[in-house]
């Protein structure tokens, strides 16, 4: 498969999988999001452009490493006195344990938003440095990087949820995409598609428990909630989660669902033959029509997610990453200069998102979290030919602007897939009711994860 798909999926698995479990084994396992457990170390000074020194920066291997490597070249031109050792590292296996031990640390590292709330004790407090950019940065990204009112990560990307649809199939069924304003509208559209083609099961629902739970959290985040609050308390028993689970049940009961693993063989076949035509998913689904799908190429389009209530938010986040500076880094001020350049300065963010040797049309799998870098009238990547020349940039940045703020992701999130993720699968298979999913998952997450933290 192509380069984009594997890294994005594996990054998300790593974000909440093995790395999170490794972190849970450390001394911060008992610290809920919202409590750093000790007085944070603040980073407040900003060196001048003539600063000199050397920094070691960690990133994951793969295409994003190459993208950042090219962007760091632009940084070197702006700060010629700073030597950057950019290293490809298995961050999920190494970073959490390195932070805890305090040895062989980088000066800065790429890291998943999922990790930051649980490791704040080992990170620099960046609140004062981010202050000049705070009002123009996504509220969602600030909130997932915040513990006890202090910011511990430099917000990088946003992964807004979008509705991906086959324009030609909707047109044949008499469905106007502009009318898909609520999730009830989405069900009605799926029924119209099935009436046109009895073999159609238009709505994608995820068969992988991990990605299914991540998808569920996108839909919950769209309503301003999440599995845990800022103190790590489980809040699954809520109106917002019932909205989602009842909607899933209705789609299943009406036989409108293709239940398949994300871009695996069965999923691709259903996308190619027209069985699936409606995919509520993150912006990184853009990879599929660009690299994997042959039939219907040029017919896929992106739109904002429907809202759960009229006038409600039209997107939620599904994944995301930021940059951190370890509290025991040797040259933290110089690492801050690099991340400030990449996230908040030109030509830094254009070097990351714009056309490059790796992505000739630009990086289309996320958008920046910093507002001035996310202007609809100044796209950083080109219209996507595989989407019929659609301006995906505008769709994605408009959706990103509606994402509500959130709470830090708890350290036990990955293990909760054993309960909530698996129960969601049972709901989609028609083996469990929405209230049973909530009751059983809440009880087991509380007993087996929260109470044992």
Description:
With 453 residues, the chain is α/β, with parallel strands linked by helices. It folds into two domains: 5-159 and 319-396, D-Maltodextrin-Binding Protein, domain 2 (3-Layer(aba) Sandwich); 161-316 and 412-450, 3-Layer(aba) Sandwich (D-Maltodextrin-Binding Protein, domain 2), CATH 3.40.190.10. The protein is 42% helix and 13% strand. It is built from 18 helices and 16 strands. It has helices at residues 5-16, 18-24, 63-78, 91-101, 113-116, 127-134, 139-144, 167-172, 183-196, 209-222, 239-253, 265-272, 287-292, 332-344, 348-353, 392-400, 413-428, 434-450; strands spanning 41-42, 53-59, 82-88, 108-112, 124-125, 146-147, 150-151, 154-155, 157-158, 161-166, 203-206, 257-260, 278-282, 300-304, 321-324, 367-368. Strands 3-2-4-15-8 form a five-stranded mixed beta sheet. It has a three-stranded antiparallel beta sheet with strand order 13-10-14. Helix 3 links the parallel strand 2 (53-59) and strand 3 (82-88).
What would a concise description of this structure say?
By secondary structure, the chain is an alpha/beta fold.
Give unreliable regions as ranges.
1-11, 13-36
Helix percent reads 40-55%
Main sheet, how many strands, which sense, barrel?
A: 5 strands, mixed
Per CATH, the class of the largest domain reads Alpha Beta
Instruction: Kindly report the name of the CATH homologous superfamily of the largest domain.
Output: Periplasmic binding protein-like II
CATH architecture classification name of the largest domain? 3-Layer(aba) Sandwich
